[in-house]
Amino acid sequence: MASFLQVENLTKSYGDRILFADVTFGINDGDKIGLIAKNVMGKTTLLRCIAGMEGVDSGSVTFRSDLRISYLEQTPQLDNSLTVLETCIADSGDIIKAITAYEKALASDDIAELTRATELMDMSQAWDYEERLKQMLSQLGITNLTQPVSQLSGGQKKRVALAKIILENPELIILDEPTNHLDISSIEWLESFLSRSKMAILMVTHDRYFLDRVCDRIIEIDHGQIFSYEGNYNNYLRRRQERIEAMTAELAKVKNTLRREQEWMNRQPQARAGKAKFRIDAFYDLKKRAAVDLRERNVDLSVKSAYIGSKIFEASHISKRFGDKVILNDFNYVFSRYEKLGIIGSNGVGKSTFVKMLQGLVSSEEGTWDIGETVRFGYYSQDGISFNPEKKVIDAITEIAEDIVVNDGTQRFSPSQFLQHFLFSPADQQKFIAKLSGGERSRLHLASVLMKSPNFLILDEPTNDLDIVTLGILEEYLAEFKGCAIIISHDRYFLDNIVDHLFVLEGNGIVKDFPGNYSDYRLWKAEADEKTRLQKAAQEQATSGKTATKPKSSDKNRMTFKERKEFEALESEIEALNSEKNALEAEFAAGSGVADIQEKSQRYNEIQMLLDEKELRWLELSEKS
User: Which CATH class is domain 3-237?
Assistant: First the structure.
């Protein structure tokens, strides 16, 4: 397997804080690697260092000569003066070079130059670049190629950048949170595309289903070190737990030995006279090893909800539109106590508008919302925190409340104490909000919501910048939350673990209430779509006057003439091999000479292998019509 790049002893720090030290690993042709770490542990920094976008303290990154690499930043920086199409074509490397060379060759009379340019077009797969670009952007929900980039949302810019780098046809693609701001259908398309792709992949993502279905190797940054696990995300969870248990047991042994050696070191110097110097050196080495802190600092979500009564809210004949776009049309619903609802739908369909209308932040054109008197909303907005970026973290929280009282008045915290539950150390609390990372901003946002002890949580895309560990803690918190919750999320794993049912916003004001989690809905929808397809095919056959038998597959999935001949031959070959196999089994049962048995046993094994191969091929062809 060809080596694409080798990372050797990479070390990076900011001031006194070491992000990672002596990181060493390689990426080979076809590897699909997920990079995992808690927030502020250096995931994005490591990607940027590998891509050459940021310097390192020491170490090296060595690439294979002429390796084609594409990099998707967490927040892509695009030229606002260009259109979508111009953005995707600009600086598209080998493809644009090939197109430019070909157009130049066409304008000349040089046959040799045209031949070279044609070969370059073939190698770069540049002939149908624009058509493939349009198709990919459509899959990602971008249909207007002449729209200026300045008019795109942050999520739309991310999708344009994603399509651009995929179509550059890289051998290695580096992705920083590729699923952020994509709707679920786009995520599932990307998941399917990457899992089938031959590109090597190095990516950071918190989407656990995405990791599980795309990656075949997980690399974790933990306490400044790097650990590699073969297999997908589920295998990583098991192996990581085994590693932590082994390290904990080893640390306990080291501490026991250290106690014994400490007693020896505490004796009077004369009692140690003549003792081997290596034992003294070994003591200090033990002391250093015992100082390792394996404790994990995690967010502490121990804030309980305030009491909530039996009346939550009732929506009566709600309608809302923006121009010709209908968000809700005569919507009616009675929300129950302790209900946990997930909301899904394509980007722009009105999910965020729905929860803003519920809270009175956006007015409805018709109908009323009747909210219970005990309801206390806690709103985690997709737009993020609204604090002044020039303020310090501690000052922003102190402005909300100088005395934080939670859990029915049984616990009181100062702003500094409360922030430490969300992993803001006293030093971190002095940071300016403008300098916070995405994960830190999300934790601060969550702290500002929970400090008010809400009993009705509305979480709009809470998973975008939280690390996997924090997401797990938030899931556990919501599962035990003694209140109500509405969750808008593209994180399928998160939805599966939390919600009782879904509102599926289908557009044009249609809201489908589905009883179950996202995986239940996905299975139901696949079955419903297949049923609809079969019914449509049967109707088309009936309309054309043909017998309504099994609907024909698309031409793309039909056998070629050559495959039809192969399929017919396979049936005869499988039948003949089975007959020979049965005859040999009968002979073995009757008994024969030793030499005969060895020879026929060898033939029997050959037949078994041939049958496996031919039956598998027969099954593949039988799925075609």
Answer: alpha beta
